């Protein structure tokens, strides 16, 4: 065993994995339809990174906190166990935030969600960078390097677009639309109390929310209302957008559920 592990910590890691998985999926859906070729490529690359983070986190869950145990035996975590987590769970067993489930078929909304999510994600990884769960700390080290590029990408676009009257207005409208969903990222997930108590996380994620909201205000130059810390729900409810999103994710698998892809 490479650190503490129980059902509560499993839920804590699973929520992070689900957010990374769905955010990666949402980015991939802009391939071929982004406003210009460079953004097709950028969103594809960022989406791959997020899906890679999700795979790492699902491997921690699937191996009861010790993915290196199977790797050391020459096997690695069975892909079918990862697929079962990523595609085969009942919707009620997902722990994703509603922000990553939402449909953003407007480019301004997609870009703003990209910035909001990745800026919050930086804070989230920081909280597990020194985790007593060694595979999670290792995942944070790798992810934080990639996330620097994600934030630079989003910031570079906002630097150009926010001062432009039409583009800036669209981005700020998107921000107003998305903020009620975005604060849900800080909804305390099931197992977080135990994760903090055992050193898996340094502090509850919602303790970083006010810092994040200040960063949002400064980045977009807007006077946002005060946002209260979300009432804990355990993230056990799915939004209306979740079902269609999961169907798109399972489109190839559903062609032949018995096949091993």
Automatic annotation (TrEMBL):
<dbReference type="Pfam" id="PF05138">
    <property type="entry name" value="PaaA_PaaC"/>
</dbReference>
<dbReference type="InterPro" id="IPR007814">
    <property type="entry name" value="PaaA_PaaC"/>
</dbReference>
<dbReference type="GO" id="GO:0010124">
    <property type="term" value="P:phenylacetate catabolic process"/>
</dbReference>
<dbReference type="InterPro" id="IPR009078">
    <property type="entry name" value="Ferritin-like_SF"/>
</dbReference>
<dbReference type="GO" id="GO:0005829">
    <property type="term" value="C:cytosol"/>
</dbReference>
<protein>
    <recommendedName>
        <fullName>Phenylacetate-CoA oxygenase subunit PaaI</fullName>
    </recommendedName>
</protein>
<dbReference type="InterPro" id="IPR052703">
    <property type="entry name" value="Aromatic_CoA_ox/epox"/>
</dbReference>
<dbReference type="InterPro" id="IPR012347">
    <property type="entry name" value="Ferritin-like"/>
</dbReference>
<dbReference type="InterPro" id="IPR011882">
    <property type="entry name" value="PaaC"/>
</dbReference>
